[in-house]
Design brief:
Structural class: alpha+beta
CATH class: Alpha Beta
Largest sheet: 9 strands, mixed
Number of strands: 9
Strand content: 25-35%
Order of helices and strands: HHEEEHEHEEEEEHH
Radius of gyration: 17 Å
CATH topology: archaeoglobus fulgidus dsm 4304 fold
CATH superfamily: archaeoglobus fulgidus dsm 4304 superfamily
Distance between the termini: 23 Å
CATH architecture: 2-Layer Sandwich
Strand order of the largest sheet: 3-2-1-4-5-9-8-7-6
């Protein structure tokens, strides 16, 4: 089904969503909200979509990447896939999964964009919904973004950095979601790479757990 048909079917006002994204984006801060060199609880969220259902998992690990806690939430999808509006589809389940944690993490890694998004990336939207500092890690960049050496630019403004985490693999695009700076985001993710894995280790662990949950639920 084409995007225009989905918008009509679900009675979605794209202009209203854009306005909401722009309004929320004004609440984003790129100042480090804490000393991230001393984070004790690092979380990562991963989503798997099967037909009309979504599984959101969250793992929390320590600085040595030992898993402290893991939770998941299963729900029905209530919003279609629309480019640039992913958070309206996946965010509710992600928040529910994180709300099941016994203790809040110091930092959350999200598969997706932070401030690299033209208005409000899923990592930023998640942070504004939970109050937790977030970093967005993406495999691609939006049309309209520019690359200058290791920097990602939008409208001539630096919005992230490129990380070649694994030789001969496509790079990762790192952008802060909220409550953390671009440089801290980049350095933290870089230090969380544990070869031969391309993703930072918490996200690798979350991806592995998500597949285990999917298999357990037989979806």
């Amino acid at each position: 089904m084409q995007e225009s048909e989905l918008i009509a079917k679900y009675n979605i006002s794209i202009e209203s969503l854009k306005a909401e994204q722009l309004k929320l984006s004004k609440e984003i801060t790129l100042k480090d909200s804490q000393d991230f060199s001393n984070v004790e609880r690092i979380a990562a969220v991963e989503n798997i979509i099967v037909m009309n259902q979504i599984i959101s998992v969250v793992i929390v690990c320590d600085k040595e990447f030992n898993i402290i806690e893991q939770q998941y939430f299963l729900d029905k999808l209530r919003f279609p896939y629309l480019n640039e509006f992913r958070s309206y589809r996946e965010l509710p389940t992600m928040v529910e999964a994180v709300n099941k944690l016994n203790e809040s993490p110091d930092l959350v890694l999200i598969r997706g964009e932070g401030i690299m998004h033209p208005r409000l990336g899923i990592a930023s939207h998640f942070s504004l919904s939970t109050g937790l500092p977030t970093i967005g890690i993406s495999d691609s960049i939006f049309e309209g973004s520019e690359v200058s050496k290791e920097d990602i630019l939008r409208d001539k403004k630096k919005v992230g950095r490129i990380l070649q985490s694994k030789e001969k693999s496509n790079p990762l695009y790192i952008s802060p979601g909220n409550k953390i700076s671009i440089e801290s985001s980049y350095n933290l993710v870089k230090n969380m790479i544990k070869l031969p894995h391309k993703l930072p280790e918490p996200l690798h662990l979350a991806h592995k757990y998500a597949r285990e949950v999917r298999d357990e639920l037989k979806l």
